[in-house]
Amino acid sequence: MVSHRDRGAQRIAAVDEAAAALGLKRGMGIADARAMHPRIEVMEAEPEADRRLLEALADWCDRYTPLVAMDGEDGLFLDITGCTHLFGGEKAMLSEVLTRFFHQGFDARAGLASTPGAAWAAARHGGAAIVDPGGEADRLTPLPLAALRLDADVQAGLASVGLRTVGAIIGAPRAPLARRFGAGLLMRLDQALGRVDEAISPRRPVAPLSAERHLAEPIGTMEDVELLVGLLAGTLKADLERRGEGARSLELGLFRVDGAVARVPISTARPLRDPALMRRLFHERLGVLAARLDAGFGYDLVRLSILAAERLEPRQTDLDSRTDMLEDDLAGLADRVAARLGGGALLAPVIQGSHVPERAAALVPWTPGPALAATPGLPEQERPIRLFRRPEPVSAAAEVPDGPPISFRWRRALYRVARAEGPERIAPEWWHEPSDTAERDYFRVEDETGRRYWLFREGHYGDPGLPPRWFVQGMFA
Amino acid sequence: MAQRALAQDALLALRRTIAGIEGRLPETLSQADGGTVLMRRHGRAEGTGEHFATGAAALDAVLGGGLPAAGMTEIHGAETRDGGAVAGFALALASMVLARRPGPLLWVATGDVFREVGHPYAPGLAGPYAIAPERLVLADVPRLADALWVGEEAARLEALAAVLIEVGGSPARLDLTATRRLHRRAMLAGRPVLLLRQAGSPEPTAAPARIAVAPAPAAPRHTLAGPLARSIGPPGFLVAVDKSPTARTGRFTLEWNRHDRRFADRSCPAIPAADSRAVVPLSADGEGAAPTPFQRMAFPAGDGTAAAGGQPSRPRRAAHRRR
After folding, report:
1. Residue ranges per domain, chain A?
2. Could you give the residue range(s) of every CATH 3.40.50.300 domain in chain B?
3. E-only strand ranges, A105-206
4. Which of A326, A413, A450 sits opposite B103 (nearest CB)?
5. How far apart are the C-alpha atoms of B239 and B253, rounded to whole Å?
């Protein structure tokens, strides 16, 4: 038995069969229940865990249809339009779903109808599970009004005027009902009867193209999975060619026998159609994920979906097709690195319009392609070839008030400055930084061995307050 | 005559097959007429390929013509704090390659190397090395294994002008086999690959050339009125070649000329006293040493001498690295 807090008291949220046999019902106070049956076992409800479980089930239901929607806390909608023939008809499909749920330890009820409303009523209010098309009105007539998914106050209002079943309002005049109980009531009725279309909101977008393989014997090794990816990619290639497109974003769905679903997404730098290349990308990705992907008892369904596709013009190759090949090479490298190490592994520097050294060059994810126009605004002064992300503090002895350092200690080693150039003053950018940021005086220094560093002093000697601080920010060649 | 040539041809083919079976590479094939001996490896003649002349005649002579255009070259520095000079030397070589080849330069390193030695800074590369920001691609990867993987993937691409792989220390993973893989891929693609070992001791390598780089004092800036006192001009490098295709070694003091994009031999060093020291430990006493971990600090922690404020002598630092 599970309890939750409702209207200031612990109440029963759900009961198992044994508790139901004792006459306990949902909504009853825990104190009352304990008084009746002192030996009952009560557990606190965990709505978050329930939610996660339902989402895992929804993931699992992806094997039947891509259109799976959540319904409240304890239900799922599956839009199986056009999917039933894959499972041997509606009846066979329904019994397969229910059998599989039963074997996983769930007590599931199902309803199947032409409208979501009728299916909902059939699932939650008993009777035959399958509602024939056109038979919605007959099926709903004897059911209580709760079967129409109505708000509690509308239901109470209807009950107070003696309307307790769906049949009572199907035949009733519509205008007075709408005036008294709002348009919501008639909308729900029309939805259930199929007079108005109702769309369910699927959890994930439907992939424009996907190919899948159901396996009688589950597979567990990554080699087998990769082999299947190659086969599925081969199937998709024909579709892509017909549409004149190439895949930009792919997802591999691995459905484990026990219901867990793993999804492996991959995106590419250019439209891709070649099955061998797709397989290679997934090879890299799966190689990295191998430690985290637990095949358990194996996968019995493997699905390759193309989430995003882009126009891929058939290219005429020149006699000298070198340029194309070189571009393909770079894009392929970018894809493989992204598949294995993530999108941020390859970086390109971009010059920014800033005087502050650490802001002057940003690193952005690299995409192969024609180089952008030459970047303006490179500083004319000497800049180091290597820069520390954060300037590293050093203790330095320097000429007062604004001379170069004479010696400094950096990373526990002492450096005596043989020569120095500077200062170059860089003022803080007041539009970015707090107003009390100190200005920096930069020096190029060379120590006695010939190592060249870029140091700066923050603040001035003789200013009130803290003495100035010295930092190493970069190294010259 | 024709019969003799045919027999010679058959003999050569047989020899090649036998060499292939025995895995005895490179095979030595003597040509029939001239008697010249050509070293061949995987069908490509070695030591005869294209080179990028560095401009310093003595260095070019030792390297057999310059930086090999196809294959790997190893460059290492003794300490992390020399990282600027080591990277500067490698970038100078890369700059010469970029001037003649299309495509970007890929710089691969693990994140901790970038943090320790500093990130490549595009505004600083554009001036002295003429490496435009759009021709530089960085690969910032989490582990050494990933860096080697990216390096191998990139080394065989012809679309890249050059690949620069930077590692810290002398990791066990980067052994003879790993370097051979890199070298072979680079050779087949006909692209130079530069392997930078920061704070690494000389290790066995499959690269035909291994160069140790240390900083040297810069020359003063030249003005119309003559050298400007106490100014920092073109950077200097102490370069020691301890393995080369010509089997010769040598030590040079070079200076990078940014205008001509070439090195110059510095016949009279700016500060001669600095040049008289030993630059790198001889490879002889590095032999048999265990792979050293990447020295995190430019200076080892807990060193009494450092705390006292003095610089330890060079042999002492070498002892630290081997520990």
Report:
1. 2-45, 69-193, 209-316+332-339, 386-475
2. 51-275
3. none
4. A326
5. 6
For each of chain B's 323 residues, which pLDDT tens digit applies?
677 888 888 888 887 777 666 655 444 444 444 444 444 444 444 444 688 888 888 899 898 888 888 899 999 999 999 999 999 999 999 999 999 888 899 999 999 999 999 999 999 998 889 898 889 999 999 999 999 999 999 998 888 999 999 999 888 889 899 999 999 999 888 889 999 999 888 888 899 999 999 999 998 888 888 888 888 989 999 999 989 888 888 999 999 998 888 999 886 444 444 444 444 444 444 444 455 567 666 554 444 444 344 444 444 444 444 44
Q: What is the DSSP letter of B134?
A: G
Cα-based angle A114, A116, A118 (whole degrees, multiple of 5): 70
The total number of residues written for chain A in this structure: 477
C-alpha–C-alpha distance, residues B239 and B214, integer Å: 7
Q: Does domain A2-45 have CATH number 3.30.460?
A: no
ipTM reported for the complex, 2 dp: 0.74
How close A195 comes to chain B (CA, Å)?
A: 59
Which tokens in the block code for residue A311? 């126009």
Among chain A residues, the shortest Cα distance to B302 is held by: A412
Q: Which residues of B touch A369 (CB under 8 A)?
A: none
Minimal Cα distance from B258: which residue of A? A477
Check if B111 contacts A (Cβ < 8 Å): no
Q: Which CATH number fits domain A209-316+332-339: 3.30.1490.100, 3.10.580.10, 1.10.10.10, 2.30.30.90?
A: 3.30.1490.100
CATH architecture type of domain B51-275: 3-Layer(aba) Sandwich (3.40)
User: CB distance A341–B132 less than 8 Å?
Assistant: no
Residues of A in contact with B237 (CB under 8 A): 477
Whole-number Å distance between alpha carbons of A205 and B107: 38
Q: With contacts defined as CB-CB under 8 Å, which chain B residues touch A326?
A: 102-103, 158-159
Q: Do A382 and B127 touch (CB under 8 A)?
A: yes
Backbone angles phi, psi at A466, to 5 degrees: -70, 150
pTM of the model: 0.74
